[in-house]
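Quick one: structure for this chain?
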Amino acid sequence: MIRVSLLFLATLCAGVAPALAAPVIGQPAPGFTAVDSNGKSHALSQYKGKTVILEWTNDGCPYVKKHYNAGNMQKLQKDMTSAGVVWLSVISSAPGKQGYVSVQDANALTASRKAAPTAVLLDPGGTVGRAYEAQTTPHMYIVDNAGVLRYMGAIDDQPTTDTASIAEARNYVREAYAAVSSGAKVAVTATDPYGCSVKY
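Got it. Here's what it folds into:
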């Protein structure tokens, strides 16, 4: 026990955060607390009883632009939030990296692209992103009303920047949410995310 404690302290002193448990389908989603673009704090635990969708985003990424320029992401956000889902868009870009935004810029961006998330979480230190092992923008996660992770991966099965592909896409997020909301088994629980790398 002493050895473990000393190792933990040594790790902290070295400026390296101890490894967190990886997100696992069927297990409780990693907990977090983060501040949104309006200065409000959000903890995953406060949303017990509601389905939560996490969307990693970076406005400079062409894959993100594909979904926003076509109105696809906004439609999904509106459909989900109107059904009572908590939609949290997460920006984990570090200062000086592509996609990093200030508080003011985040709100202006949301307005300019007519996005409709519940909140935009600012994660410039990458704490939430690393807890979820978010790899790309977009990278999507669905947490059910019991706080259990039910889906993680790509938004759909069309790993391209071509907006024309959206019409023929299999939308994994919409499909998984339909199953979660009806109490059915999610057919596809994890897929390989596509997009730009998260700019930690």
